[in-house]
Structures are given as structure tokens and as C-alpha cells.
Amino acid sequence: MGEFAGSQKWTIARILLYVIAFGLAIIFFVPVLYMVFTSLKPEGSIMGNLFDRVLPPFTFENYIYIFDNAPVLKWTMNSLIVSIIVPVLSLTMASLAAFALSRIDFSYKKIAFWLILSGMMIPGEATIVSLYMVANSLNILDSYAALILPGLAGPLAVVIIKQFFDGMPNELVEAAKIDGCSLFRIWWNIFIPLSKPVFASLMIFSFLGSWNDFLWPFLSIQSEDLFTLPIGIPFFMSSYNQDETLPMTINAYASIPIIIVFIIFQKYIVKGMTLSGIKG
């Protein structure tokens, strides 16, 4: 009797969790559907309620319009350049720093780690003025360097990767040293391959952060040729008198790479964060 009651409670709890998960999925997915269906409606359509949006007629004329009237492909290329270079370089630097903090003994190592950790506690907005002044003194404003260099410092990535490196067996390092491997080869041939899930998840989050970044590109870029999509979208919307279909269209287009990246690499997000939480 007790086992039956226990299994019944477990079944009810599971059903409740499924209902909650389904409800949250609807809450998060409805705005996406709203955006997509609105982007496919003819410009000037009267849409009084949700059903007016999900029912025909549909058209791709809005997408053709944004490509004909704005340098969307140029903005997309700029966003891709920044969103690919920043994760690769920042994670390379973060992994080297994490390896040094995890496996190399040097003076004031704990102080260095706590200084890096303290960087996570300072919001980016608090340093935006000083960052602008440094970029201005280096004469890199309104350039790709201004878009890329500030994103290379990633204290969170250093902490997560170090935590993962700390959990790797010392026997691997000792065996590699006996075989004559240098510290660089140990990092490159042993630690990097074993850390692929963590690197994949961090790279995805870094890509999304770079792709969606608005404040710093808005302050540091003046030339339209260097606009990224988050800067180009409001610039485009301020240049034309449109109803809601065109803003939804260009935002739907800007969401496509994010959705593709998430669909392809979603398993690494869960696996990487799980491993980084277990190790150490």
C-alpha cells in the first residue's frame, strides 16, 4: 500500500512538472510565433487580435523590402565577424589563464584568481565610460578593434574553465611530463580535448552575447559600414515610417542565426554546464 501511494505521488509530481514545463514553453514560445507571423503579414494589414496574425494571407515581401532598403547583409557580416572572433580569442585567453591558475605554481596565484573573480562582480555598465576613454586614447574607436578587443576579457570563462581543469587527474599531467611534454603541449593536447563540452557551451554563450550586444557598439561605432545588426535595426526603423510588420521582419531575420546555433549546439549547453558544475 505504501509503495503504491509513493508511486502515485511520484506520478502526480511528474505530471505537475510536465504541466509547468509546458506552460513555461508556451510563455517563451508565443512571443516568437507573434514575431514570425507578424513578419509574414502584408504591410498595412489590420491585425486586431492574435488570430488575425496566424491566419493568411502571408507574404515574404517584407523580407525583400528590408534587403532592398538597408545594408542588412553588411550588418550581418559585421555581426558574424565579431561574434566568431570574440569567442575564439576570448576562450583561448581564458583557457590559458585557467590552466596557469590551475596547474602552475607562482607567487600571488590566489590573489590573481580573486582579482579575476572580482571582475564578475562589477557590471559592464559601470566601466563603460572608462572603457570608452581607453579606446579613445588608443585611437581604435569606430573600427573592428573597438568591437572586438573589449570582449576578450572574460572572467566568468576563466573561473568555469579553471574549475573544470582542477578536476582533471594529476596522473595525466605527470605522465605527460614524463613523456617530455611541455606545459603548452599538456594544455593543447590533453586539457583542451578533454574540455570540449565546456568550451562548446561557453563559446555559444559568448557568441550570443556578442551577437546581441548593443550598448558598446552603439557608443563606439559611428560609420554605418561598421554597424552590427543590433545597431542597424533601430537605425533602419528610425529611417522609415512603418507599421509593426517591418520591425518584426528585421528582428525575425536577426534571430535566425541565434536559433540555428542553439538548435545545433543545445546538447553542449546542458552537458558543458553539468560537467563544469560537477568537476572540482
From TrEMBL:
Residues passing through the membrane, by range: 12-37, 80-101, 113-132, 144-165, 186-208, 250-270
Gene Ontology CC terms: plasma membrane
Domain ABC transmembrane type-1 as annotated: residue spans: 76-269
Membrane association type: Multi-pass membrane protein
GO biological process: transmembrane transport
Predominant location: membrane
Pfam entry (one): BPD_transp_1
Compartment list: Cell membrane
Record keywords, A-Z: Cell membrane, Membrane, Transmembrane, Transmembrane helix, Transport
PANTHER family registered for this protein in UniProt: ABC TRANSPORTER PERMEASE PROTEIN MG189-RELATED, ABC TRANSPORTER PERMEASE PROTEIN MG189-RELATED-RELATED
Record-stated family: Belongs to the binding-protein-dependent transport system permease family.
Protein known as: Sugar ABC transporter permease
Species name: Paenibacillus selenitireducens
Taxon lineage: Bacteria, Bacillati, Bacillota, Bacilli, Bacillales
